[in-house]
Amino acid sequence: MVTLREMLRAASRTFALGIERLPGLLGDAVMVAYLLLRVSDYIEDNDEMPAEQKAALLRLWDQVLAGEQEVSRLLALIGDPEESNPDGLVARHAADVLARLRALPPEVQSPIISNVRDTTLGMARWVLRGPQVESEDDMDDYMHEVAGRVGYLLTHLFAWYSFTVRLHKDALMPLAREFGLALQTVNIIRGLREDYERGWIYVPKSFCDRVHIAREDMFRPEHRAEALQVLDMLTDKAERHLRAALTYIKALPPWQHSIRLFCIYPLMFAVRTLAISRHNVRVLEDEVKITREEVARIVNETTRWGWFNPWLDHYYNRLKRASE
């Protein structure tokens, strides 16, 4: 019998690093929320299903989360996912994740269910729409559905746990959305080639129009110069969102060090990833990732100093300049 903790580590070792820092019930709540979202991801990213089927399954998953349908019906329709696929592993054990969800206090369940449902329905809308990202607003709309709402979810949970966060929740919410958009923009940059090969290009058509190329031309060697200009637009956009994410973290109380670390780890991983992606032609050819050694170093240094806001500013800028 696989445990939820094992599923978490299989799905994402980097996010597990932060989630496992969170105390007690808060850590359980964030873990459950993350695993529920991985079920949505499994359906959305399934390359073997047509869009209509994926959208129908996402809507069914929404009904399961609402308590209107049995999870057994969803599991029967998605078949028997390969456990070698981390998201498939989580989907296969969705009933166990839901059981842990139902064991949480009602005031914790509520923001998890509402935000995971909203994200799932947003995914269904975009699955049916297809890769029609005409403008930056379109890109932001997609990223809001799959990541910005996650920022809302987490801030609700932090506010439940911390009275100080609760006092500042309204001011944090817009920054929470920016945090989600920051991580998702970096994910899009990192996955440009893989997404292109599966038929999706999340780059706004308007960005390519500025340099007079079609979006598909970004991946053709004869258009490398123009493609790198488009990449610069994407990295500049990511930087704007990342700066807002840093503001979010610095607004969290320093004594809630575990919550701050949960946020700091993915932010600094993203800052470093962006640094090695900026104006890098390899991004158009393959996925660019930071090394395990860099991950370990970032975790070690931020764990020691992440409570101190001036140090966070310094460290952010240091990682940003690492490739310049």
Features:
324 residues, globular, Farnesyl Diphosphate Synthase, mainly alpha
Summarize the structure.
The protein is mainly α. It is 74% helix and 0% strand.
Detail the topology: elements first, then pairings.
Elements: H1 4-11, H2 13-19, H3 24-45, H4 51-65, H5 71-78, H6 86-92, H7 94-103, H8 106-129, H9 136-161, H10 163-167, H11 169-190, H12 192-197, H13 205-210, H14 224-251, H15 257-277, H16 292-305, H17 309-320
Can you describe this structure?
With 324 residues, the protein is an all-alpha fold. The chain has two domains: 1-129, Orthogonal Bundle (Farnesyl Diphosphate Synthase); 131-324, Farnesyl Diphosphate Synthase. It has helices at residues 4-11, 13-19, 24-45, 51-65, 71-78, 86-92, 94-103, 106-129, 136-161, 163-167, 169-190, 192-197, 205-210, 224-251, 257-277, 292-305, 309-320. The longest helix is centred in the C-terminal third of the chain and has 28 residues, at 224-251. The protein is globular, with a radius of gyration of 19 Å. The N and C termini lie far apart (48 Å). The mean pLDDT is 95.
